[in-house]
Amino acid sequence: MKVLMFGWEFPPHILGGLGTASYGITKGLSLQSDMQITFCLPRPWGDEDRSFMNIIGMSETPIVWRDVSREYVEERIGNKMSPDLYYALRDNIYADFSYRMTNDLGCIEFSGKYPQNLQDEINNYSIVAGVIARQQEFDIIHAHDWLTYPAGIHAKNVSGRPLVIHVHATDFDRSRGNVNPTVYSIEKDGMDNADCIMCVSELTRQTVINHYHQDPAKCVTMHNAVYPLPDDIKEIVRQRRPFHERGEKVVTFLGRITMQKGPEYFVEAAALVLQRTRNIRFCMAGSGDMMNEMIELAAVRGIADRFHFPGFMKGKQVYEAFRDSDVYVMPSVSEPFGISPLEAMQCGVPSIISKQSGCAEILDKCIKIDYWDINAMADAMYALCTNDAYHEYLAKEGIEEVDQITWEKVGQRIRRCYDDVLNKR
Fold first, then answer.
1. 163-167, strands of its sheet edge to edge
2. Which of 168, 332, 345, 385 could form a disulfide with 249 if both were Cys (CB 3.0 to 4.6 A apart)?
3. Nearest of 350, 358, 346 to residue 399 by alpha carbon
4. In whole angstroms, how far apart are CA 223 and each of 25, 37, 140, 154, 361?
5. Contact predicate 295/267, CB 8 Å
6. Distance between CA atoms of 123 and 311, rounded to whole angstroms?
7. Torsion angle of C-alpha atoms 336, 337, 338, 344, degrees rounded to 10
8. pTM, two decimal places
9. CA–CA separation, 49 and 109 (whole Å)
10. Mean of the per-residue pLDDT values for the chain?
11. How far apart are CA 168 and CA 7, in angstroms?
């Protein structure tokens, strides 16, 4: 089976969970011998793992109109080109060329991030998707998150192939209900045009059904997973000192410091814990628009000397943080899934997660609290930092539970969805 997949992030260049999930899903699917994946990114950086799939960069795909004159092309590019370059472009690409390009190869520039002109990049991404859909052979289209839904729709219209969209989050999650109408419109248009809607949790599936008015029959819950730790990460985790030998305990929050993630509840719970003991430190790793506010809140609560803000972490830095942590906390207000608790548990770090997170649907060997219940959160933090037996139990059981939640199994479930969609058509 040949899959044309549209994504916005891919390791090692990630800004959130979307890139991590994209890697896991493609890697899990690739373990099926007949699976061929072409993954499209706005701007590849050259160091992505291409061993199990083909990566196409939108920023490397020229778009000109077939059979137009060289003068027309040059006028819109703003540069002279050699005859050989002109004929190479003319004979191989097909998109509308009604606006000025930014380089002499007729390619649109992409930042590869989330720039101020994000809407322009989403529109340009969808234009290039039409070019790629004409060039590639594929059986099905798979678009990840709202940024690539317009591209998926364009590719579907061009090719006639079915479209699967993967809802990693909705604007209801990101905004605490203060929905951006433009984003909502893009999300709903993608869902309306999809043949199958994969949702990272039942929580997200219900949001899609109730707030985007989608047919439950085409909405499927597709939980995320974790990939086995590679040898270099295992070596980092092995450096972890036994719990009973660690002096001051460390409780960690790791993620975007935004209102969706509930960072203020973490700080308030920490303040309650520190009323009982001063033998615990708190780490808020990440970046986001609420970071300065959280630094100020820690100061106001009189706990700044027990708080650390190391900034955004990625790759090995994440696992070094887990190695040095005794408890991981994810107090998200609305978390479609949340891979980070699985990664923490994989490293033997007991986790506290909000009941309002998708991963709470598949995890049992952790502590679940309501995000707003700072007293329960504080009790859980304190118990895990002071009760050796309790900590050891959740650390051991957590590893065993997460080891059974694999991307290979997710890939098999996705494949069955692909087959169902193709059979219906």
1. 54-57, 36-41, 2-6, 140-144, 163-167, 196-199, 219-221
2. 385
3. 346
4. 11, 20, 21, 27, 9
5. no
6. 31
7. 160
8. 0.87
9. 22
10. 91
11. 11
Closest of 362, 16, 15, 403 to residue 222, by C-alpha: 362
Query: How far is the C-alpha of 148 from the C-alpha of 125, rounded, in Å?
Result: 8
**CA distance to 248, 383, 391, 409, per residue, from 388 (Å):** 13, 9, 5, 34
Which of the two residues, 25 and 67, has the higher pLDDT score? 25
User: Which conformational region is residue 198 in: left (phi greater than 0), alpha (psi within -120 to 50 degrees), or beta?
Assistant: beta
Sheet holding 351-354, edge to edge: 307-311, 280-285, 249-254, 327-330, 351-354, 367-369
For residue 84 the two structure tokens come to 């050989």
Residue bearing tokens 């209102």: 259
**Opening angle at CA 192, ends 189 and 198, nearest 5:** 100
Is residue 356's pLDDT more than 80? yes
Report which residue type is found at 400: E
For the stretch 373-400, pLDDT in tens is 999 999 999 999 999 999 999 999 999 9
* Nearest alpha-carbon partner for 298 in 263, 256, 252: 263
Smallest CA-to-CA distance from 255 within 74, 17, 86, 67 is with: 17
Using the structure block, give the residue that is written with the tokens 């808020």: 284
The residues facing 39 across adjacent strands are 5, 55
